[in-house]
Amino acid sequence: MAIRPRTLPAAISPLLLGNVLAWYQGQFSWLVAGCAMLCGVLLQIGVNLANDYFDFKSGVDTEARLGPTRVTQAGLLAPTAVRNAMALSLVLAVAVGLYLIYVGGWPIAVLAALAVAGALGYSGGPYPIASLGLGEVAAFVYFGLVAVVGVYFIQTGHTDLPAWLLASALGLYNAAIMLVNNTRDIATDTEAGKRTLAVRIGQHSARMLYRALVLLPFLMITVAWLLGALPGQTVLLAAIAAPMAVKLASAFEQTEGAALNPLLGRTAQLTLVYSLLCSLGLILARWMA
Asked: Which chain regions cross the lipid bilayer (predicted)?
């Protein structure tokens, strides 16, 4: 319950796509792929535990919380146990990441340091990222750009336009996951003084932003295909997920409060489906070449 398995597609999806893109380009290592996936999942678990611990310590999580149960606030685990589990997850992520740093060099070391700092700074520290209204930006950067471009760079030793475009698409979906979470909590976060993006722009604007976040990735890969950066198979297969995105956008506009909890999981599912379809498109394109 504490590690929140339903959120793990946020880490798995971009790393999967980055690895498959490297394979499509003919440069791929199973060891790098496995280590990157394990490192990403451990970081996501560390983030989840950090949010559970720091939001309890800061008083953001109360009995009025509308989201899934937080084990610290609910008294299911002692704060020290959650803190120690958070530290263990991050230490293990760094330990696995040492191999990735060895392969990718100093740029990956910098990204690793920023990833750990982001995990701790999202809800913790004197200026939490979430309270600055930058949660969605952080999700876009860390679980989009850093994850996809980072693993692609480790695999290939360079970056290119397809990697940045696919990274941006996955980043938008992970920002959408964060936006659902923060829109659900507008009332309780406002009361606690947590100034998330949803609190700052209001529910109406958050709904319009969500629609843009879940639909823009389809436009992005279409433009990438027109520019010759991605094969047509990727665009055609990704389009299968478009009705799911439209349905989610419509549901989000008609839902608020605790009723948004199912949409949180469904947005994570959309992220994974989009990643799988794009990956399958790349695989088919290479087989058909």
From this structure: 7-24, 30-50, 85-102, 137-155, 161-180, 208-228, 234-252, 264-288
CA angle 253, 256, 257 (to 5 degrees): 160
Residue 192 within any structural domain of the chain: yes
Which residue segment(s) compose the domain that 89 sits in? Answer: 5-284
H or E element: which one contains 265?
A: helix 261-288
Contacts of 5 by beta carbon, 8 Å cutoff, 6+ apart: none
Q: Can you give the pTM of this predicted structure?
A: 0.89
Angle at 12 between CA 7 and CA 13, to 5 degrees: 100
Torsion of the alpha carbons at 47, 147, 121 and 111, rounded to the nearest 10:
130
Structure tokens, 142: 């860390």
Could you give the 3-state DSSP secondary structure of residue 54?
Answer: helix
Which of 56, 271, 35 lies closest to 143, judged by CA?
A: 271
Phi, psi (degrees; rounded to nearest 5) at 157: 85, 5
Q: Which of 170, 169, 280 is nearest to 233 (CA)?
A: 280
**CA 19/CA 13 separation, integer angstroms:** 10
Q: Could you tell me if residue 196 is inside a domain? A: yes
Q: What is the pLDDT of residues 148-186, one digit of tens each?
A: 999 999 999 999 999 999 999 999 999 999 999 889 888
Question: What letters, b where the CB count within 10 A reaches 16 and e where it falls short, cover 34-67?
Answer: ebbbebbbbbbbbbbbbbbbbbbeeebbeeebeb
> How many domains does the chain contain in total?
1
Q: Show the tokens assigned to 234.
A: 């990727």
For residue 279, tell me if it sits in a domain. Answer: yes
**Residue 289: inside a domain, yes or no?**
no
14-53, pLDDT tens digit by residue?
999 999 999 999 999 999 999 999 999 999 898 888 878 8
Q: Nearest 5°: CA angle at 111, between 211 and 163? A: 50
